Amino acid sequence: MFSTMLSKNSNKKPTEKLFNFYQDSSLSRMINFLNEAVVVIDANGTIEMLNSTSASLLGIEKDKLLGHNLLELVIDDTGKLQTYVIESLDAGQQGLISSPPMEVNLQADKGNKTQVCVEMSISTLPEAFSSANTLYLCILRDLTLHKAEYGSLLHKANTDYLTGLANRHRFAEYLDKQWDVCEQDDVPLSIIFIDIDHFKDFNDQYGHIAGDRCLKRIGETISLSLPNRDTLAARYGGEEFALVLPRCSAQTAQLLAIRIKRHISQLSTRQFALSQESELTVSMGVATQMENRYSSKEGLLNAADTLLYQAKSQGRDQICFL
Ligand SMILES: Nc1nc2c(ncn2[C@@H]2O[C@H](COP(=O)(O)OP(=O)(O)OP(=O)(O)O)[C@@H](O)[C@H]2O)c(=O)[nH]1
């Protein structure tokens, strides 16, 4: 599999087996003791030495890698990384270099993994190790675990734990971005606020656990009612939800609000494992930025909030919009 990968990328044969020369060198013996994945390349990127840790990182036997070009293993459609590595190597010919670490995807052959994400740093080896040719030490650090952990932390930082919707932080970030798009492209942007009516009474009557189940179910109902992937639904506060609707006119936002309200009203309290049937209603405020109606995103948010409180003060269970 690895040879197929390489032959796809290059018609070149492995370069003259200079690596045989280095195989028993003290450097080669030394890197084999290291826990870090280390690859030694020449100025063209040809792999002259590597240790077992790097071979196992890529899931490719050492002998198959020796003599091949490290750049052929780099996966980068733009070619920017290859250029960067080549430039670093060229610079290394002029003097000692130590490139800042960069994130690279390398071809691999590990079970069902055909690539591995690593942080690569390149430094020139002192002449004493290099004989006639300049050699470079590439240290590869596996980022797979780090990336998975980062992804999971990012998800947690942006998500409301109870409902799985976006949290307020993510809401603010997304609104910022969409406000800029709305200003630049002169397209509408709508906000919907949704607040459960008399939720304190619900909690008092059925308890907080049932209250949590109710919030979760309403979150799911909102999610399932969203028109497209650009719409962001967030839990804005305790029993309040908020939606950002990019490129969405006032009329479309109002129709969506009506749909969500209908779907929520179809939820029966029996679904929250309660014996008694009682009505669950929400109040909503809908505001749209169009024709520069608001001078800031805060103005837009205030408008949606004021409309929500108008809906509450007019008797709840209704939608207010301009
Ligand atoms: N179960 C549960 N309750 C919550 C959570 N967050 C906030 N609440 C409750 O939501 C209720 C909100 O009460 P209020 O702000 O008085 O609003 P309300 O009773 O819905 O009345 P109106 O909004 O005026 O219709 C409080 O009882 C909070 O304890 C939560 O995560 N879980």
TrEMBL record:
Cofactor(s), by name: Mg(2+)
What Gene Ontology terms describe what this protein does at the molecular function level?
diguanylate cyclase activity
SUPFAM superfamilies associated with the record:
Nucleotide cyclase (SSF55073), PYP-like sensor domain (PAS domain) (SSF55785)
The record ties this protein, via Pfam families, to: Diguanyl_cycl_sensor, GGDEF
For this UniProt entry, which residues form the secretion signal? none
InterPro entries named in the record: Diguanyl_cycl_sensor_dom (IPR059127), Diguanylate_Cyclase (IPR050469), GGDEF_dom (IPR000160), Nucleotide_cyclase (IPR029787), PAS (IPR000014), PAS-like_dom_sf (IPR035965), Rev_trsase/Diguanyl_cyclase (IPR043128)
GO terms in the biological process aspect are: cell adhesion involved in single-species biofilm formation; negative regulation of bacterial-type flagellum-dependent cell motility
Q: Where is the GGDEF domain?
A: 187-322
Instruction: Enumerate the spans annotated as PAS domain.
Output: 23-74
Which reaction is the catalytic activity of this chain? 2 GTP = 3',3'-c-di-GMP + 2 diphosphate
Entry-linked NCBIfam families: GGDEF (TIGR00254), sensory_box (TIGR00229)
Q: What is this protein called?
A: diguanylate cyclase
